[in-house]
Amino acid sequence: MSTKNNFFFKKIEKYKFKNAIITENGQYITYQELLNNSKKISKKLDKKKKLIFLLGQNNLETITAYISFINMGHTLALIDFKINEIFLKRLINIYKPDYIFCEKEKIKIKNLYKQILKYNSHCLFQRRENLKNILHKDLMLLMSTSGSTGSPKLVKQSYLNVRSNTEKIIKYLNITSKDITITSLPFTYVYGLSVVNTHLFSGATIVLTNKSMVEKKFWNLIKTYNVNNFSGVPYNYSIINIIGKKGLPKSLKYTTQAGGKMNYKLIENILRIYSKHKIKLIQMYGAAEATSRMSYLKWKYAKKKIGSIGKAISGGNFYLINKLGKKFNKINKKGELVYKGKNVCMGYAKHLKDLSLPDANKGVLKTGDIAHKDSQGFYFIDGRKNRYIKVFGIRVNLSELEFILLKKGIDTIMKESGENKIDVYFKNLLNVKKSIKYLSKVTSFNQNVFNVKKLSKKNLTNNYKLKI
After folding, report:
1. Which CATH number among 3.40.640.10, 3.30.300.30, 3.40.50.720, 3.30.450.80 corresponds to the domain 387-459?
2. Distances, alpha carbon 167 to alpha carbons 173, 342, 455, in Å
3. 35 has pLDDT over 90
4. 3-class SS at 273?
5. Which of 124-128, 172-176, 377-381, 439-443 has the lowest mean pLDDT?
6. For the chain, what are the domain ranges?
7. Phi, then psi, of 416 in degrees rounded to 5
8. Are 28 and 182 spatial neighbours (Cβ–Cβ below 8 Å)?
9. Cβ(275)–Cβ(245) under 8 Å?
10. Domain 10-373 CATH class label
11. C or N terminus of the chain, fewer CB within 10 Å?
């Protein structure tokens, strides 16, 4: 196995006496202990590059195994630990991993795998048959974009992708060894993993929990361990909008937001709450295909540029292209947003054979988002390229309709529902009549075109995004 990409986390050795992890039950783990425990797992692994499935969650076992596997130079597929047994078997049949690390009860196909290590509540399983899979030397991670649905389509991330994005995020957020964060997002979600990577690289401390923001225990952990930052998607901020009015922990200095567009009224409310507590809101834009994050909006522009994704991260670059794929530089003109940077992934995998293929993207990512930039170079997302439908022969972009309501503080998701019909899923049914009337006005469609639906909790993914 190539040594070029080994010891990805070697830098953290210099923080050996610093606390790396604080568990839910108050256990402190230093960087030295974390590395020592990771090496115990490494001893059970083949020295040749192998494919490993890690069914991860926000706990010590997952973090320790993650460091072990990555430092050994293996290719790691991060899979939500909540994945259905049927979906897991499907992925195993498609990718035939050499090892699986998970809670013992998750493995039902023991005829294919044998247990070779027990580490606390988790076990390492090895495939009984040595398949000698060919893996690209630069391939570090396989990330799902579909939560726990078990889709075989995975994003291929290289060592360069992860390292470059991690370093850029550390720089613009100024993360240091004095920082303390908490796992407010799933470890297997690219945004959640990015938080872990940036804080480990910085010698910071991570409070590990699977508790959600709606639970009192989550906020108690922040207060107990003086957490100064955390990250969230729009769903998290809708909770903060309620809880924050009663007060927030004094230790908080900033929070970051990505994982979807937040409605303007919610942003204004969060900024109002944060101003009372002297907390900064850093909004960002990213994707698994860009390893994590492509842009950020500086705090000083949070009020002036509401709705903007900001500007590209250091070392990255945005530009817009028209329908013919030609680049243009006009102000306020809509086009597809393209990102260029070292953090652009190697491409997608749908089968085991795809893991040996070279970089397909060459540092360029067509995001699929329709956007424009203003006179000061700030970018704004206007919709999705592939969400066009026809209603009475008129071409309509569902994302644009969603954003029209989003600017009024109303969260919806829309989809085509038969001929000349659009289902509108409302998160809150308080302003339904006004919303439908407004949609009818801006589209010139009769109100009967829009079917009102209630977006329930079961429509929420494991990554806290809304789904239908």
Report:
1. 3.30.300.30
2. 10, 11, 38
3. yes
4. helix
5. 439-443
6. 10-373, 387-459
7. -70, 140
8. no
9. no
10. alpha beta
11. C
Tokens for 335, please give them. Answer: 């086009």
- DSSP class per residue in 75-137: EEEEEETT--HHHHHHHHHHH--SEEEEEGGG---TTTEEEEEEETTEEEEEESS-------T
Q: What does the block give as tokens for 384?
A: 């999705």
Q: Are 156 and 348 in contact (CB under 8 A)?
A: yes
Rg (CA), the chain: 23
Judge residue 285's burial from the number of C-beta atoms within 10 Å of its C-beta, 0-12 exposed, 13-18 middle, 19 or more buried: buried
Query: What single string gives the DSSP state of each residue in 199-224?
Result: HHHTT-EEE-----TTSHHHHHHHHH
Give me the residue label for tokens 């659009």: 422
Identify the CA nearest to 290 among candidates 252, 346, 336.
346
The answer to whether the 10-373 and 387-459 domains have the same CATH topology is no
Block residue for tokens 């072990």: 68
If residue 196 lies in a helix (H) or strand (E), which one and from where to where? helix 190-201
In order of 218, 241, 260, 339, the CA distances from 283 in angstroms are 22, 16, 10, 17
Prediction pTM value: 0.88
| Structure tokens belonging to residue 112 | 């294919």
209 to each of 24, 25, 117, 203, 457, how far by Cα in Å? 6, 9, 24, 19, 21
What distance in Å separates the CA atoms of residue 184 and residue 333, rounded to the nearest whole number? 37
pLDDT higher than threshold 90 for residue 308: yes
**Within a 10 A sphere around the Cβ of 229, how many other Cβ atoms?**
24
310 in Cβ contact with 318 (< 8 Å):
no
Contact yes or no for 341/312 (Cβ under 8 A): yes
Tokens of 246: 């009663």
**Taking residues 402-420, what's their average pLDDT?**
87
